[in-house]
Every structure is written in structure tokens, then in C-alpha cells.
Amino acid sequence: MLTGVQVLLIGGDARQLEVIRKLTELDASVTVVGFEGLHTPLDGAIHAELRDELFDSADALVLPAVGTDDNGLITAVFSDRELRLTEAQIGRLPKHATVYAGMAKPYLAQLCALHGIGLMELFERDDVAIYNSIPTAEGAIMMAIQNTDITIHGSTCMVLGIGRTGLTLARTLQGLGAKVKIGIRRQEHFARAWEMGFSPFYIDRLLHEVGNIDLLFNTIPTMIVTAQIIANLPSRAVIIDLASKPGGTDFRFAEKRGMKAMLAPGLPGIVAPKTAGRIIADCLCQLIMDNAKLWGDRP
């Protein structure tokens, strides 16, 4: 239980609704900012405007998937007001407090470091990333179906990267009857991909492997699908880039060549916000409970 724990939650999208629900179910005292445009009441939560004094008693500050932008702005889809996190506000947090976000850009990371406030990036955790790989894979396949005139079954798909998202996606494509080629870097990953029935190849062979594929899914967040690679792709091929912005694809050249190439980061929050919210909520609440055991007698 989170009885007595003060949580300040600012901004976000539909995923945060599940987070709020879970926090209140566990009896946390939850104050929310940036939800005045929501038509459904948030039972058990207190609505407030963004004021500096809200930070004085917060044990946990919960921010959206991307905590803030490079200038401190916080995304809030249920509000028309500008929400900006300032250094003064971070400085008012109690020293035992922790800031939670999906990921933190340098602005947020620097503020927390400056004031000695703990920062937890949930999307960096293996458990969250693996759970999130499920709606990511489903969303990527949905986009593939919408943007092709063939079935996944019998198609030749290429997945670049065999990390947490790449492996789930490759396995799901395989389950739908696709022939799956996987681009990898490490020998042990090559062996595992081969053992699972995929067709692995080393990334430095990419140029020679793309000549006859229908779908290319990239999960590597560096420029890897270059103009040279795109020039070797069949004109029918569709590129779906799942890496974080700006992705790993030369979108300008793909457009010039008349090929479909889409950047699709953050799919869990788009295609399955309730599931994605539950994933965040379960992890977040457990982390807050674990931290609460260390606080002892708070001032």
C-alpha cells in the first residue's frame, strides 16, 4: 500500500489515467496537474494548477513518457495550458523525493542532478521495455497491414536489431507466417536467432541482404537505413522505423524514391494506451513502494 505517500503527477496522455487509477487504489495521496480538459472525473485524485508549493511535500513527482522537452515543457493532452517545469520547482522537492518519467532529456536530468534529486527513467528498465515490446510489435504489424497490399503470411520481413523490441517483433512476424531475416551485430545473438528459426545476418552485410524483401522494420536508433541501402530495396518494400526520434532511416531519400517509410516511435501509447498505462503503473507503484521503505522518518 501507498498510504501516506504524496504523489504529484503532471501532464501526460491516456496512459496516465491508468497510473492515477492504480496510485489511488493503493491509497496514495495523488495531486494531478494538467487534466482540467478531461470529461471523466478522476476518483480519488485532487486537481490543481501548477504552483511551486505543490512540490514542497511531494514524495514522488510523476511526469509523462518524455518527461520534458529541452526547455522544460511538459506534454499534457488533457490541458490547453502551458506546463513548464522549472529549476526552482525541482529545488523545492524533499531530498528523499524521486522524479519518475519514461525517459529524461538533458534538461530534466541536469535539474535533478543539480539538486540531488533521484531520477528514474522507466523505459530504461528491462521489464518495462519487454512488456512494452508487445504493443509495439502489434502496432508495427498494424501499420504494415495498412500500408501493403499483401499478407504478412508468406512475406519476407527484415528486422534490424534483436533487442527487446526486435526479438518480440520478429517472433510475432514469424508466428504470422512471415519469413524473417534479422540483422544483428554479436555472435551470440546470431546463434540465438538461428536457433529460433530466423535467418540471421550481420549488419555489415545489410546492403547485400535487402534486395528481395517486402517489409523492413528498424529498431536501431542510429542512421542505418541509408540512401545506399534504400537504393537497393525493391520499390514495393515498406520501411517502418521503430527507433526513437529521429530514427535510423534516410526518410528524405525514401520519399525522393517514392517509397513508403514511416517513423513510428511511442507505439504503445498510441495503439494500446490502457495496456501501456498499466505497464507503467505496475512498475511505478512498485518502485515507489520500494523507495518508501528507505525513507524512514521524513521531516
Could you tell me the strand content as a percent range? 15-25%
Sheet with the most strands, sense and barrel status: 6 strands, parallel
Low-confidence stretches: none
Radius of gyration: 22 Å
Q: Tell the overall outline.
A: elongated
Structural class: alpha/beta
Distinct helical segment count: 11
Helix content estimate: 25-40%
**How many β strands by DSSP?**
12
Order of H and E elements: EHEEEHEHEHEHEHEHEHEHEHH
* Average pLDDT score: 94
In the sheet with the most strands, the strands line up as 3-2-1-4-5-6
Cα(first) to Cα(last) distance is 21 Å
General description of the model:
With 299 residues, this protein is α/β, with parallel strands linked by helices. It is built from eleven helices and twelve strands. 38% of the residues lie in helices and 17% in strands. The strands form two sheets. The protein has a six-stranded parallel β-sheet, sandwiched between helices. Strands 9-8-7-10-11-12 form a six-stranded parallel β-sheet. Helix 4 (126-146) runs antiparallel to helix 11 (273-295). The radius of gyration is 22 Å and the shape is elongated. The two termini are 21 Å apart. The mean pLDDT is 94.
Helices, strands, pairings?
Blueprint: E1 6-10, H1 14-25, E2 29-33, E3 45-48, E4 60-62, H2 87-91, E5 98-101, H3 106-115, E6 118-121, H4 126-146, E7 156-160, H5 164-175, E8 179-184, H6 187-195, E9 199-202, H7 206-209, E10 215-218, H8 227-232, E11 238-241, H9 251-257, E12 260-263, H10 267-271, H11 273-295
Parallel strand pairs: 1-2, 1-4, 2-3, 4-5, 5-6, 7-8, 7-10, 8-9, 10-11, 11-12
Helix pairs in contact: 1-11, 4-5, 4-11
